[in-house]
Structure formats: structure tokens, C-alpha cells
Amino acid sequence: MPKPGRTRAVSGSQVRGYLDKAGEFLAAAGDELAAERFIAATSLAIHAAINAADAVTGSRTGCRAAGQDHEEVRSLLWDSGKDGAELDKDLGRLLPLKTKAEYEPDDLAASACPGRTDARHCAAAAQQNDPSGETTAWR
User: Fold this and answer.
1) pLDDT tens across 48-62, in order?
2) What does pTM read for this prediction?
3) Distance between alpha carbon 100 and the CA centroid of its chain, in Å?
4) Cα–Cα distance between 88 and 92 in angstroms, integer?
């Protein structure tokens, strides 16, 4: 587990913004998956999960990770209670795919695109931490 790095304060309205972004990335990941664009689907699912993590840590700890390494959010998730620890498991499966999907020249097969399910779990955990109490129907 990485040590906590830089953080930034997060307000309730910013938590809602991260939730909205997570939902939009998740919906777009579903569209790309349906169109069999697996690289884009994986990348979008990862970004949905990262925004969901920022929503949970913002809601529970009042801050989000602000370092260059996305792994830094994982220690904040463990400080965010049961929801954070559960989200960390899914995010831990997604983050290793980020470099492969976004920077490596290789293609991703459908079987290498588990990201949407993990991202949905992350988004659902984040939605439970929405300070407005609103719910969003995400695909």
C-alpha cells in the first residue's frame, strides 16, 4: 500500500461533481464496450473508478489524493471506512490496466476488459456517500 501523498480539500458540492463525472465515464464505458472498442471502454471505466474514489474519500475524509500517482488514493480509501476498503479492491484491479489501455501500443481483447464491472462497484460505493442524498441511474 503506498504512503499517503499530497491531498486537496473536497467540499460536499465537489463530492457531487466527482459522482457526476464517475457516472458519465461509466455510461461512456458501457457505450464503448457495446461498440467493441475495448481500449476506450477500459480507459473510461478506470476514470469512472478514479472519480468514484475521489467522491468516497472526499465524503468520508474531506480530502482527495492530489499526487501524480493514482495509487496514492488507495491509502485514503482505507481511511474511508468499509465502503472505501471495498472500493479499493476494485480500484486495485483497475489501476494496473491504465498504462496498458492508455499508453501501450498493444490492443486489449474483450477478455482483458473487466473494467466496467469493477467501475460499477466503485460508482455504487461512491453513490452511497453522496452528501446530497440524490441517486443517479447509471447504466
Assistant:
1) 889 999 999 999 999
2) 0.81
3) 17
4) 6
